[in-house]
């Protein structure tokens, strides 16, 4: 019986010791879990992903800038081409008018007056109607004839939308005074208004293509 009595107290002590040893371990685990929960979470992003996104943004920005510049350049080129085409048309209108005004035959002054009025504004046409009788009095007695060949034409200015064009012509003429003929270079200044249907609104230099009075 002595052996049984001595063994029981020892087992109770061992159980108590084991319980005491396990308690700190459980406390430590709980504290670790609590500390982990309190720590801020961090998001890990790969540098290669950041570089890819940055490159994509830069590419989109570059494309937008390029597109804007391309549209601007295209608009500038179109404007330049439109201006060049308009100037060329003004030069052609002025040349055609100057050549027609310099082709004169004293035997048909009425047809020549018609050329002077063709493609002109009502105001300029009215001026030619007023001066037609005087012009006929000059041409018919002299038996004046002339023909013109264009040399060049150039827009000199554009004021208020009206082109001022200088037209250079070679004019060959014959008359009772110079039956053998004569040649001269004549410069016309012709105003062409696109706003009125490319009408000729004013003409200067015609005296060079007419007989000297």
What characteristics describe this protein?
213 residues, alpha+beta, Nuclear Transport Factor 2, Chain: A, 5-stranded antiparallel beta sheet
Fold and architecture overview:
The chain is α+β, with helices and mostly antiparallel strands and 213 residues long. It has a domain at 90-209: Roll (Nuclear Transport Factor 2, Chain: A). It has 4 helices and 5 strands, in the order ααβααββββ. It has helices at residues 2-38, 47-102, 109-117, 122-142, and strands at residues 104-105, 145-159, 162-174, 182-193, 199-204. The chain has a 5-stranded antiparallel β-sheet with strand order 1-2-3-4-5, with helices on one face. A hairpin with a 2-residue loop joins strand 2 (145-159) and strand 3 (162-174). Helix 3 (109-117) packs antiparallel against helix 4 (122-142). The longest helix is centred in the middle third of the chain and has 56 residues, at 47-102. The radius of gyration is 51 Å and the shape is rod-shaped. The N and C termini lie far apart (169 Å).
Please summarize the sheet with the most strands: 5 strands, antiparallel
CATH top-level class of the domain at 90-209:
Alpha Beta
Helix count from the secondary structure assignment? 4
- Low-confidence sequence ranges: 1-10
Proportion of residues in β-strands: 15-25%
In whole angstroms, the N-to-C terminal distance is 169 Å
Let me know the CATH homologous superfamily of the domain at 90-209.
Answer: VirB8 protein
Rg calculated over all Cα atoms: 51 Å
Shape, please?
rod-shaped
The total strand number stands at 5
